[in-house]
Amino acid sequence: MIRNLRLTAAISAAALILTSCGGGGGDSNNFGGTPSPSPPTPTPTPTPPTYGDGGEYVAPAQEALTVTDVQTVIAQAVGEATARGLPSIIAVTDRVGNVLAVFQMNGAAPMAAASTETPKGTNPNPAGLQGAMVPATIAAISKAVTGAYLSSSGNAFSTRTASQIVQEHFPPAPTAVGLESGPLFGVQFSQLPCSDLSARFMAGGGAAGLIGPKRSPLGLSADPGGLPLYKNGVVVGAIGVMGDGDYGFDSNILDIDKDDEEAIALAGIQGFAPPASITANRISVDGTSLRFSDMNVGDLSPLQNNFAAIDGTAGALVAVRGYNDAAIIAGTAYGTEASGIRASTLAEFRNTDAFVLSDGTGTNRFPVRAATDAASVPGPLTEPEVRAILEEAFIVMTRARAQIRQPLDSRAQVSISVVDTHGEILGIVRSPDAPIFGTDVSLQKARTATFFSNSVAATQMLATPAAAPYVQAIRNFLNDPNALTGTVAFADRSGGNLARPYFPDGEVGRPHGPISQPIDEFSPFNNGLQLDFVIGNIGAHVAFVGDPMAADTPQRCTTLPDAAPGQNRLENGIQIFPGSVPIYRGDQLIGGIGVSGDGIDQDDMISFLGLHNAGQRVGGIGNAPTSIRADNVVVDLGDANVRLRYINCPFAPFLDTDDQNVCQGL
């Protein structure tokens, strides 16, 4: 029986995001480079590159999984599961989240329980999603989507990587107490089943049914057992394995887990493994190498890859309501019209490197347009202003040094979204190889910064039962009876400060932020307002998957009142790690920009500088006045005063100059 997920969590808190993503290498694994010769001195000095027109990126080759490939992946995974005596469910997706197959082995546990673990031990009174029973099929799908969405041609991340970067301390370990939270703290509640951006499976939908990015049934997963799949160095999808009935996370990276699910997934990716040079352990954050897998090829049994030998004997293909039929289909090649993400035309976006989301028939799903909120704000964003913001942010990205991508000194690759004050999408653009997860996340970030900076934020939250208790908690914490009435401009970094279980971030013994759960109750499955906003949507969707008579969650997250008929300001939930700023015309809020994909400080810089440069270009728009930015807010903790943060731009940010402090004074 599925536990009721529509619980409202207790009022709680969070803390300052002070982390940034750092580039770096790592030790090798079993899953390089030759120094370049010194260039000749140019005569005359070459003309510096002109940024903004294109040519800075190479789009990934259009590779895809075939039906035979999917059969091989499943057969190899089933062979390892059989050798380990762990009947499992194996899901395979393509890069844009289409579920290509789900194979259920005989005897596989049909349900999985979300972990009740907290930093203080098992929670005796599970809350949020803790202890929730969910179909094991959607746990496997969520793992596969995570492996595909977090990876690119420059980085291969797994669900174990995800586990490492979403917890209350980074790295998560008993000895890490006092360190700040993971750099992607909160990313687990993205790609939600209610997201208005994410496409949905359409049985018999032809090309239109295969467009992505698709939703993930439980958001992104931190449970080891999800690994990306590659062909010729290009990410083409991922495998997710669920077999032990425990849908959790790894709270201690100091030990090496003997994880059967991860071993089964590792067997599945043989022949489709990522290049060793880009696996997560080759990438570091704040000097800590990330983790890809605790299992090695040497831990595996002899590979079995005959799908015909296991189909109908070891188990069978199964349909998952809302995701796939009981069949194997081929994946779509990312970058093609059929995938739903393709290169833009010059009429859509002037930079020839730009990619956009398409509907499968050639139409841009989110073309650049003017704001829809003229009834709410004087001087709403115009189409030329939105275009300038997106173009200038894109230019900043092309100059920026990537921080979670190999080889070192690669260009950053991100997704960029702009919204109006109603949360309506005014345009989305991405670089050719940005991780897919950043598309939905950049939109969450743009909406979050805009919502919390809006004069109606408190009113709308008070009208939403799941969110109402947090209003007074925020006002008490900030000692500001007018908080959330538009008097303060919140970037996502600022709101994230308030969403950590320690304030300041990571400092043990400090209070929790007002929109986080206290540390005794906190977990990635019970983190506060972010989850409470959408827990009803997730619960409805879990019921829909398991009950043919149940209705699915609407393509609209949260139960906030409409900003205008059919317009919800947070239609894909909120995000609580950095990378967005609100947009102002003078002292009037008129929208928001969100960026996600290649390091949280890079995301901050691209949004902040992109907006600033757009204002310089077209006039009349820009960042919030310095007098109302959240970094003017000082929280009195009794024995210390702690200032909120607004944005944090990276060291050595650009590839073409040695400029530092590029955001200072703007």
Automatic annotation (TrEMBL):
Residues 1-25 form the signal peptide. Residues 27-51 are annotated as: Disordered. SUPFAM superfamilies: GlcG-like. Pfam families: HbpS-like. Keywords: Signal. InterPro entries: GlcG_carb_metab_protein (IPR052517), PduO/GlcC-like (IPR005624), PduO/GlcC-like_sf (IPR038084). Residues 36-49 have a biased composition (Pro residues). Gene3D superfamilies: Haem-degrading domain (3.30.450.150). This is Uncharacterized conserved protein GlcG, DUF336 family.
